[in-house]
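User: Assemble these into one structure.

Assistant: Restating your components, then the assembled model:
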Amino acid sequence: MPAAAGERWQDQLYDLLRRHDVTQFAYVPDAGHRILIDRSLADRGVHSVALTTEEEGVALLAGADLGGARGVLLMQSSGTGNCINMLSLAKGGRFPMLMLISMRGDFGEGNPWQFPMGQAVEPVLQAMGVIVLRVETPQDVVPTVEAAMTMVFQSGNAVAVLLTQKLLGAKAF
Amino acid sequence: MTMRYPAGVDVAAAVAAGFVLDRCEAVPALIGKADDFLIVTGLAGTARDIASLTHDSAQIFTMAGAMGGAVMIGLGLALARPDKRVLVATGDGEILMNVGALATVAIMNPANFSILVVDNGHYGETGWQKSHTSLGVDLEKIAIGAGIQRTRTVSTEGELAAGARLLREGNGAAVVVLRVAPAEPPAYKRNFDPAACRNRFRAALLGA
């Protein structure tokens, strides 16, 4: 579906997720996902689930799938490390998992604390059997997440879409 | 039924601290008719409790890894299926690994969701080392502090009926902490293949 001129890609992305019956939005609050989180909070048709740590979200998505519902886990790159053992559910149980990761420790990062996990996101996810797709431009967001949803909900994979700092911009310090 | 205490467990200390009930009798008494629930279990002990109770039915999802995930799997299932009553049965060690999940459950507070913590004060699967709950940590108080409004500790036979009611009450998320003796759970060989367990659960519930 073509987006209205001037519409934010974040709004297009939210509408895309809803069109594909995503009804559980799980997140640890994050600036990069602020618009998606706010829209899920305002949407009476979904469960907007604030987590204390990202691994809770991996388990939540497995439970949603057991009940026939679809979810998405929104997190920052640093949260990836908190999920690793719980991703056993994806690889061992073949639970579908859709993760959108806002990157830090990447292009133009000014906080040295963000680099160890940021640079490890791809190899760590791949080691746990998660397919990684990267988005660097606003026009690629919707097609990439749409492709990811087919890979997740039709083919039963775990897929992480990395919303890179080329897309989001590096946080200024 | 005679409880089987593993070698090396300090039975006197467990009894003094109120860990006396036999899980093989108390868990079935609390759950009652298991078919009334969709059940997610923790690892090892509670997986065996529930698999034994249901003959490893398609209405249960048992874990043998991904420790710390049982409560959140149950929450996702409860949110997905408000028409069904969802029960998580897990151990003290499993819930201690992710106590933050109790806070997440509290803020969502689904009416169809209950958690049964089978608390034996020990890590039975790894050699019966004492867990934090043998050393003063109170999981009911943690649940209350997390914001769960319906909680109860059951440590005597006389409290079983009230605990059973709370698991079925349906007015919001509930936590029942069942204190049991550090003795062996039922012997039962369940399906350990998580993908097979996922598929059979979904086939039974969704026809898919």
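The first helix of chain B runs from residue 11 to 16.
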